[in-house]
Proteasome subunit beta (Solanum tuberosum), 204 residues
Amino acid sequence: MSIFEYNGSALVAMVGKNCFAIASDRRFGVQLQTIATDFQRIYKIHEKLFIGLSGLATDTQTLQQRLMFRHKLYELREDRDMKPETFASLVSAMLYEKRFGPYLCQPVIAGLGDDDKPFICTMDSIGAKELAKDFVVSGTASESLYGACEAMYKPDMGPEELFETISQALLSSVDRDCLSGWGGHVYVVTPTEVTERILKGRMD
């Protein structure tokens, strides 16, 4: 078993019309044993920027704390929020500088940039970025997430349709992966509001 699969995870971010959604499962397990069903994988950096971290749970929490610290320093120095593209470069640089003993996690970054244009990207554990215009996935359920998102995604969806699409994609994907699941956590972000919803999934 790969160390990235030790705790299990499913993460997906999807782009809509001037909005984006990011969703994760809620299971925290040790291999096939479920420990908790309310684990947080998505973190808010500021009102228009979120990061999801899949992989080894201890490393994701450490990395999240260090990223929050770096963002607060940026806010103090620049007196403004970080753009998603800038934040993606920061995450990439932080991962690459630890490349000989990497953080065992794969981030998914989603945010609204200039003119409320959605930005999403993912990267591997040493910071190699992969940008996308439609959706990005990460975690042990990523193979089935690719299939579900390919089938369900369509461009320029509104916030409600985007929520429905990402929720269906997540729930149908984690059913095909025994290391993730136990409900879902979805954020839909528009220029004016952030909507957070908890999904109920199969509990077995």
Summary: The longest strand covers residues 105-112. The domain at 3-194 is CATH 3.60.20.10 (Glutamine Phosphoribosylpyrophosphate, subunit 1, domain 1). The chain has one domain: 3-194. The chain has a mean pLDDT of 93.
